[in-house]
Fold Serine hydrolase domain-containing protein.
Amino acid sequence: MSVAVSTDPDRIGFDPARLARIDEHFGRYVDDGRLAGWQIVVTRRGEIAHSATYGLRDREAGAPVEPDTLWRIYSMTKPITSVAAMMLWEEGRFELNDPISRWLPEFADVRVYDRGSVLKPYTVPAVEPVRVWHLLTHTAGLTYGFAQVNVVDGLYRAAGFDLGVPAGADLAEATRGMARLPLLFQPGTSWNYGVSTDVLGRLVEVVSGQSLDAFFTERIFRPLGMTDTRWWVDEPDAKRLAALYAPHPATGQAVRAEAIGRYALRAPECLSGGGGLVSTAADYHRFTQFLLRGGELDGVRLLGPRTVRFMTRNHLPGNRDLASFSPEGFAETILDGVGFGLGFAVVLDPVPSRVPSSVGEYYWGGLASTAFWVDPVEEVTALLFTQLMPSSTYPLRPQLRQLVYSALVD
């Protein structure tokens, strides 16, 4: 599959000279050593207006970024897991208000952190069950150990949940371990980025009767033609995988993070619906086009258009934005003027963020600075791939929005 430019940008409302600013701007990140390389794809109305690669997928090997480079997409796995869940919802297999303990009994008697320390936490019973919609919206009270913001994060790390799960745990065992830890807040009362989508992936397994990898392959990847998206990279394709980098604390230069990066080269014990996939620009382009087209691509329909519209509305209670509904913590998004749907951040008002976008645009990103968005108003999609962890290192995502929207001139 190709992500080559498929039309004259002028024909679909883009100024080619202004699109060229994207490569000039992000090229500087590579030229001064902050990034090893990147790949960017911009489309409108299903046509590719801009597609570019720059720099090296593996700086130490001198290997350039190529159109078929494989990228760790980390949390860009979450929208795919959310689509999987909503496919089952469309079949009537569950309701969004259902308590997840119906399928995952370990969540029947969860407790909520009240006060105290990592060594001596005090908890209270949950007054509301964790429901399916809580998982899809990150309002369940689950968290990430690596966030290192609060006591519950510390309890996660103490139990072996940091960047991954305890050694030897598969998804079923990891989910049982998560249920034994206290929630950060009462379900549905706040928003916090965490392992909710991993638990959702386990729910998909139990409800469907398939492993998550089998469900993804048979129900999503194969029908959509996402032939390169996988859970790990085996030997024949290992050279296509981009190396993972992190900024040097003193110089800001990208330094290889091999200890974490090598995990993508072996089969995972736990299938992480929240962050386990490797993909290509061509594959994720097909996923964004499927979304933009309302759940259908090339004659294959996985979701109904009303379901996609429902997923990409703000589901936070009171139509609040993340800034007013979230404790301070890690997230793959700015919080002001942004709500959250069933698996996606949703723009409510672009003004508070000071970043151009359309009301109703939806998106997400990954830990290694990858990102995508779908703008149903302008019929624009955009993809950014690089491998720099964490994603908060540089403002790559808002800068890409600046450059894309300023190039749209019709």
In short: The longest strand covers residues 47-58. The longest helix spans residues 16-31.
